[in-house]
Write a structure and sequence with these properties.
The chain is mainly beta. The chain has one domain: Immunoglobulins (Immunoglobulin-like, Sandwich). It contains two helices and ten strands; from the N terminus they run H-E-E-E-E-H-E-E-E-E-E-E. The model has no long low-confidence stretch (mean pLDDT about 90).
Length: about 170
């Protein structure tokens, strides 16, 4: 006669997860949810300012990833009744120097220690001009930007924003 092997002892089946493993799984789930919802992708922001007969609209990279590029788009509109001469756009150099191979259109007239300067020679009443700078992220972190638009002797328009570059 054949003998049957003994039966295993009874036990409760359950999954044991250590506290650190549970936290790790939760963090991974949050990262996946953030990625699927677009929170970790490229994002743009917008800022507006007006005064001294000008309206300025800026569309800037708000969230950027390392080695990716997005444009910085600056629209300047003459909201006054007279044509304006020599409107100057000054983009902070401390911001632009954080990007690789920055190309500004129209070309910068001057690069100083503080800023890149673009001069819009003549801006007729009601017209809009664009200044575009292509920005390729060269380092990660929070980058503070400053923009100043100068119209002759009128008070300058100052704008600020932050770009976050993710690794």
């Amino acid at each position: 006669m054949a003998h049957d092997p003994p039966q295993p002892p009874p036990f409760q089946r359950r999954i044991l997860i250590a506290r650190v493993q549970g936290i790790g799984v939760g963090v991974l789930c949050l990262v996946v949810i953030a990625a699927l919802s677009g929170l970790l992708g490229l994002r743009t922001g917008e800022a507006n300012a007006s005064g001294a007969g000008l309206e300025v609209h800026v569309k800037y990279p708000r969230i950027l990833r390392y080695k990716t590029s997005l444009p910085l788009e600056i629209s300047i509109r003459n909201a006054g009744a007279q044509a304006l001469q020599n409107v100057e756009v000054q983009i902070g150099r401390s911001y632009l120097d954080n990007f690789h191979d920055v190309q500004v259109t129209p070309d910068t007239r001057e690069i100083t220690e503080r800023d890149y300067r673009v001069v819009l020679d003549r801006l007729p009443a009601g017209d809009t001009r664009e200044v575009v700078a292509w920005l390729e992220a060269n380092r990660s972190g929070q980058l503070d930007a400053s923009l100043r638009v100068v119209n002759g002797t009128a008070p300058a328009l100052d704008m600020r924003w932050t770009t976050t570059v993710l690794p």
